[in-house]
Write a structure and sequence with these properties.
Number of helices: 12
Order of helices and strands: EHHEHEEHEHEHEHEHEHEHEHH
Radius of gyration: 20 Å
Distance between the termini: 41 Å
CATH architecture of the largest domain: 3-Layer(aba) Sandwich
Shape: globular
CATH superfamily of the largest domain: Glycogen Phosphorylase B
Largest sheet: 6 strands, parallel
CATH topology of the largest domain: Rossmann fold
Structural class: alpha/beta
Length: 325
C-alpha cells in the first residue's frame, strides 16, 4: 500500500492531481490510498488515480491527530500535506517502510528536497515526487467531467463564497456583475458552498435574479452535480477558493479574484482560458502580502472593480462557444 496524506480541502486536492498521477504511474502495482476528508471521496474518484480514500481530517488546515489503524505499516508513505514536522511525524508513527517528504531540520528522517515557500502549489508537489524519481507535469490537472446533467447549461456561474472573509469579494460587487450579465441576456446562476446560503441568496436578490438562480441551497451541490454545472458553464467568476480549481480541472473559462495570496502560488495555468485579477501594493510581499484568514476582505481584493470583472468575462466569452451543448 502507498499511503498519501492530503487531509485538506477541495482546491488542495485538485492542485495535487499532477503529483498523484505521477505516483500512480510510477507505482502502478501498489494500492494508492489517499488520507483526506471523507467529503472529498467523489473528488478522489474523479482524479482516476486513487484506489481508496481513508477518512482523515484535522481542525481547519491542521494535521490530523491520528489516522485509522488500517493505515499502519504502508510500503510507502507520501506527505503531500505540508512542510512538516507535524505531518512528517504523523506518517512516521505509522511505521512505513519508506517515507517521502520535504526535508525539515526538526525531522532528520525526511531526505527530500528543501521546502520553497515561493513555489506554486502544483509545482511544489511535482518537485517532491520528481526528487524521488517520479516526474510530474504541473499542468496535468484535467479531470473528466461526470455524466451528471447541468441544472443551468451555458450559464455564467458566480461563486461569492470563500473559507475566510479575507478572500470574499463584497456581495454588492458580485451582485453588480450578476445584474449586468443578466441585462446583457446571459443566463446567470449563483452557487453556495456549505454555510454560504445567505451570502449566495443576497447576491441573487440584489442582482434581481429569481430564487431559482441560487444553486446549493439548502444543501450544497454534490461534487458530481457541481462538476456537471461547471463543465457546461460559459464562465466561472470566483475568488481564490476551491471552485476556481474545479473550473481549471474541467477546462472551463474562469475569472479568478485574488487578494491576500498571490496567484503565483495558487493561480490557474496560463493557457488562455483563465483571467486572474490581482492588485498588490508597491512593496508588498510577492507571495503572501495579506492574511488569508482575516475577518474582513483584503485591501488588494477590494481594488478589483465590477467593471474589470465584466471586461474579463466578456473577453473570455468567445472561448465558450458551444457551452452548454
Amino acid at each position: 500500500m502507498v499511503l498519501v496524506l492530503r487531509a485538506l480541502g477541495l482546491g488542495d486536492l485538485l492542485t495535487a492531481v499532477p503529483a498523484l498521477r505521477a505516483l500512480r504511474r510510477a507505482l502502478a502495482g501498489h494500492e494508492l490510498v489517499l488520507a483526506a476528508p471523507p467529503e472529498l471521496e467523489g473528488v478522489a474518484r474523479a482524479t482516476g488515480c486513487v484506489d481508496r480514500l481513508l477518512p482523515a481530517a484535522g481542525p481547519g488546515r491542521a494535521v490530523p491527530d491520528a489516522l485509522p489503524a488500517e493505515a499502519r505499516h504502508p510500503d510507502l508513505a507520501v506527505n503531500l500535506h505540508g512542510s512538516g514536522p507535524a505531518s512528517h511525524r504523523l506518517l512516521a508513527s505509522l511505521a512505513p517502510r519508506r517515507l517521502w517528504a520535504f526535508h525539515h531540520p526538526e525531522f532528520p528522517g525526511a531526505d527530500g528536497p528543501p521546502w520553497d515557500p515561493s513555489a506554486h502549489e502544483r509545482h511544489r508537489w511535482c518537485a517532491l515526487t520528481a526528487w524521488y524519481g517520479c516526474p510530474a507535469d504541473p499542468d496535468d490537472v484535467t479531470i473528466d467531467p461526470p455524466g451528471t446533467a447541468s441544472p443551468a447549461p451555458g450559464a455564467v456561474v458566480l461563486h461569492p463564497g470563500a473559507q475566510a472573509p479575507a478572500r470574499r469579494w463584497p456581495v454588492a460587487r458580485f451582485a453588480a456583475v450578476a445584474a449586468a450579465l443578466h441585462r446583457a441576456g446571459l443566463p446567470v446562476v449563483v452557487t453556495a458552498g456549505p454555510g454560504e446560503d445567505r451570502l449566495a441568496t443576497a447576491v441573487a436578490a440584489q442582482a434581481g435574479l429569481p430564487p431559482a438562480a441560487v444553486l446549493g441551497v439548502p444543501r450544497p451541490l454534490a461534487f458530481d452535480a457541481l462538476c456537471g454545472l461547471v463543465a457546461r458553464a460559459r464562465c466561472v467568476v470566483v475568488g481564490d477558493t476551491g471552485l476556481a480549481h474545479v473550473a481549471t480541472a474541467l477546462g472551463t473559462p474562469s475569472v479568478v479574484l485574488f487578494g491576500p495570496v498571490a496567484p503565483s502560488l495558487w493561480g490557474p495555468p496560463d493557457h488562455g482560458l483563465h483571467r486572474v485579477l490581482w492588485h498588490p501594493s508597491r512593496g508588498d510581499d510577492t507571495t503572501r502580502p495579506g492574511d488569508p484568514h482575516a475577518g474582513r476582505p483584503d485591501p488588494r481584493l477590494l481594488r478589483i472593480t465590477p467593471g474589470e470583472v465584466l471586461d474579463a468575462v466578456h473577453a473570455l466569452l468567445p472561448a465558450t462557444a458551444g457551452a452548454g451543448s
